[in-house]
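queue> pop job 88
queue> type: inverse folding (structure -> sequence)
queue> payload:
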């Protein structure tokens, strides 16, 4: 029988936790003993306005179940907001064990008609906000605390694979993957594990919110977020996709390719099937691994 994962005495920050996926994560973590900073600006799906009631409601839910939580209404999209979110954990409990960076907005527009101010606001929330303004102070707090920690960044199928009308959103979400890979390397010595999750669920942000326990509800994603936030999870530097009870690892690989010291554009095209053949591939863990792969293949 598998022992239930517990978070007793541990402190977790969840951004965008006023509804949807973030709320599902926060409630499940609290049910397992974690102390929560429930962060949510409470704005609209395109980032307008604010409403403190969203985060406050989730805190009330947690407290009604006997858990501990504090609300944070700060914006992830500013350095000051990010620091304040992490400070809420440190000021209340003196530690931070895990961060789930989940806050997000959408302002979809085709690339040809992209408004750069709108695009900047999306990137500010997802990449600058989730990846830097909140994650950096969290990373530093974990490093200084000496206990390590876990950071879970939220990527997306739109970033990994592309989606019409989501150029800015997709760019931000794929940018988080590159950041995650670098933080894996920089945090490893301090025991900080950093991974990325691409959730698939019906939420307010997708325009089709459903109950947590619905087939495509946020509750079907929460288990893997909880697992990745737990100290027992050995994974570091990986990408996962989850939804509707499906849990999968997303890989970044390089094919064995084709070698020709005298290659020309013409001969490369003539051997395009060998360049692209994915029957044999490697999964490099860092940019440094590429040199080893090239040396092994080219001799």
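queue> result:
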């Amino acid at each position: 029988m598998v022992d239930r994962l517990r978070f007793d005495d541990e402190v977790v920050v969840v951004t965008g936790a006023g509804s949807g996926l973030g709320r599902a994560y926060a409630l499940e973590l609290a049910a397992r003993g974690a102390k929560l900073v429930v962060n949510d600006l409470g704005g609209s799906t395109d980032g307008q306005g604010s409403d403190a009631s969203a985060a406050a409601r989730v805190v009330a839910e947690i407290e009604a179940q006997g858990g501990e939580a504090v609300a944070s209404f700060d914006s992830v999209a500013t350095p000051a907001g990010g620091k304040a979110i992490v400070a809420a954990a440190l000021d209340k409990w003196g530690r931070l064990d895990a961060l789930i960076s989940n806050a997000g907005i959408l302002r979809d527009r085709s690339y040809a008609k992209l408004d750069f101010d709108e695009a900047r606001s999306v990137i500010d929330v997802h990449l600058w906000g989730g990846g830097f303004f909140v994650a950096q102070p969290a990373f530093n707090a974990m490093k200084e605390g000496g206990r390590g920690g876990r950071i879970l960044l939220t990527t997306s199928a739109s970033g990994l694979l592309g989606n019409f009308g989501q150029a800015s959103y997709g760019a931000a979400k794929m940018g988080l993957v590159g950041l995650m890979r670098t933080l894996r390397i920089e945090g490893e010595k301090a025991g900080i594990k950093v991974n990325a999750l691409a959730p698939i669920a019906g939420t307010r942000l997708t325009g089709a919110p459903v109950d947590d326990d619905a087939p495509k509800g946020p509750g079907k994603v929460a288990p893997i977020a909880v697992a990745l936030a737990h100290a027992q999870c050995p994974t570091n530097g990986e990408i996962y996709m989850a939804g509707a009870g499906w849990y999968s690892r997303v890989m970044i690989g390089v094919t064995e390719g084709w070698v020709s010291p005298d290659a020309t554009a013409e001969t490369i095209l003539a051997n395009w099937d060998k360049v692209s053949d994915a029957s044999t591939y490697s999964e490099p863990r860092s940019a440094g691994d590429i040199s080893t792969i090239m040396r092994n293949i080219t001799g």
